[in-house]
Amino acid sequence: FHLAGIRLAPKEKLEIPVLFMPAEMKIYKAVVVIHVMRGNGENWPYEVTGESNRDLNRNVIVAENGETQGILWIYPINGTPEAPQQKSVVIRCQARQRLEQRVELLLIGVMPGATDLPDAGNSAPVDTEEVSSTPEVSDGSSATLEFLYELQYQSDEIRYQLESLVGMELVEKEWDTESRIVTLIFNVVFAPSKPMRSEATLVIQCTAGGLWKFPLVFIATEPEVDDVINIEAVGLNKESIVGFKLTSQTR
């Protein structure tokens, strides 16, 4: 859109509306250009010289007499489409146990790169180091789709609680060219030490464009009973004492 003839008083603020309505899951780029001139049409007496600020020189419109006729502000805008909120994935494990589970996540509307599309249904394992890594997902064809993923937490307290208990690794990708759906398969490890319920969000971004967020719910149920303590009475109205040891898992 184009806005013209807007007059501003000294130190007055101007809000510029920007509307983003992506039609596809791809990167969109635009530029907002603001051109300011004096209301009376006169030029600024300021003269642009070689010693002036380079960024200023680049955005200054100079008149024939060397005075400043106008100033440009240029703001690049990068638009990243985000998929609708996905359903929560529940990871449930008993406390003091270790769960290893494969989780399949569907990315709908993935746009291919500039190269040819891969064959439908092809998949290949992917090596990654850790969460927040940037693995390259290849299906062995001429087209390569790259995904970035990160596990985000609602607070630093939840991050501190879950970081040492949860591990995620992207192990496989399946691409369907007809439906444009990519299935990412993650290997999730959950080893809770005590009963808990915490939430996190797995954020996945495709370098070709698009952002997907998957809520994860980690539930640790009550652990198994450690032992049964039997106390044998020595007589009526007399105390009986049984000793047992407790081992702390932390210092």
From TrEMBL:
GO CC annotations on file: cilium
Domain CFAP47-like immunoglobulin-like: 82-221
Pfam families named in the record: Ig_CFAP47 (PF26579)
InterPro entries given in the database record: Ig_CFAP47 (IPR058952)
GO biological process annotation, one example: sperm axoneme assembly
Chain residue ranges for the region called Disordered: 118-139
Protein name in UniProt: CFA47 protein
Organism: Melospiza melodia (Song sparrow)
